[in-house]
Amino acid sequence: MYKVLITSRSFGDLNRQAFDILERAGIVSVKMKEPYHPEIFSKLLEPCDALIIGAHPLEEDAVRGAGNLKFICKHGAGTDNLNMEMLRKYNIQAAHVPGVNADAVADLTFGLMLCLARKICDAAHDVRKGGWSKHIGTDVCFKTLGLIGFGSIARKVALRAGGFSMSVQAYDPYLNQLPETYDDVRLTDLQTVISTSDFVSLHVPLTNDTYHLMGEQEISAMKPGSFLINTARGGIIDEKALLKALQTGHLAGAGLDVLENEQPGSPLSHMEQVILTPHIGMYSAETINKVGCACAEKVVAALSGEPVENLL
Ligand code: NAD
After folding, report:
1. What is the pTM of this model?
2. Which residue CA neighbors atom 43 of ligand 1 most closely?
3. Which of 110, 133, 140, 156 has the fewest CB atoms within 10 Å, i.e. the most exposed one?
4. 271 burial class (0-12, 13-18, 19+ CB within 10 angstroms)?
5. Is the pLDDT of residue 275 over 90?
6. What stretches of the chain show up as alpha helix (H) in DSSP?
């Protein structure tokens, strides 16, 4: 009987649908309840044939110790914690679930833009504390939105921006032209997107090329009074440079769902101009369920020797 380890915290949290898919195929599932710890993880992984992995690291030692491991599915789209070169050495296939969480992440991206610009969180916080003071923000509608990366999530953000009469420009060096649906989006260079947008929103994977893509130079080149939004990965922004730009008032604010080191206590979390959420991009009930079921289906297919989509 095949066994799968699940380390994504949200997998099957809301109902049993994703677990049922595994059970119907005769696959035993074990969910790691503790926060990630290399030793606990390695021990749990040892007897498993498959792994549904969250965002934690996957060390070679753990993979080496899991002699039966044949397949890994990333619970989500971002694959920066999977070293494919290392996994191929051990003949382990891996897949991810791209696009399924795009709407949820796009909703959060827009939510961060609206909350920052209209100071919604500050105003609501005041009222909750018994106050009734007015907070003057700036419009989101009719402003210029700059998208860095124009894949699944950025496209959903662009569609939402259309409803707000925003002018949308994007930088994606891997695209020569845009599909017809995005006729209103202007594909341009990084410098233009950074220096002429009122909101710059990041939607690229974290790779060697995109690490600190928004460094001191790029952040300084942003339009004074503009906002930076990151729902992609923490490492894409140089956080020290961002902190400085917020302290000097060069940037009006930042909306961050991700950090390079995701734990409480970041100096950015104490700033009024920052809305920091704990990596909840795909945390809507519908999306958690869809992503969980998609992962379970991929594990069933892989262990039954059937073709698996979105292999890495
Ligand atoms: P995607 O693969 O559909 O799109 C990524 C786009 O980035 C592609 O079009 C690619 O051409 C482009 N790109 C790659 N390198 C680039 C570069 N150097 N400069 C500009 N563009 C570049 O991915 P997606 O589904 O849109 O997701 C984007 C990222 O968002 C994921 O890699 C993941 O890290 C992150 N994500 C975060 C959450 C969350 O919970 N906050 C959820 C899902 C995804």
Report:
1. 0.92
2. 77
3. 133
4. middle
5. yes
6. 17-24, 38-45, 60-65, 84-89, 102-118, 120-128, 152-163, 190-196, 216-220, 239-247, 285-303
| pLDDT higher than threshold 90 for residue 283 | yes
Q: Are 200 and 218 in contact (CB under 8 A)?
A: no
Task: Render pLDDT for 153-181 as a digit per residue (tens, 0 to 9).
Answer: 999 999 999 999 999 999 999 998 888 88
Domains and CATH numbers, the chain: 3-100+284-303 (3.40.50.720), 102-276 (3.40.50.720)
* pLDDT of amino acid 13: 84
- When pLDDT is averaged across residues 138-145 and rounded to a whole number, the result is 98
132: number of Cβ within 10 Å: 7
Pairing of strands 3-6, 50-53: parallel
Whose structure tokens read 């679930």? 97
Which tokens sit at 136? 């003057």
pLDDT at 254 > cutoff 90: yes
Cα separation, 212 vs 221, whole angstroms: 14
For the residues 287-304, what does the mean pLDDT come to? 96
Residues with CB under 6 A from ligand 1: 76-78, 98, 101-102, 105, 148-154, 171-174, 203-206, 209-210, 231-233, 257-258, 279, 281-282
3-state helix, strand, coil in the chain (%, to 5): 35, 15, 45
Cβ-contact 252, 136 below 8 angstroms: no
Amino acid 303: pLDDT:
96
Tell me, in angstroms, the distance from the centre of ligand 1 to residue 115's CA: 23
Express as a percent the part of the chain with pLDDT over 90: 93
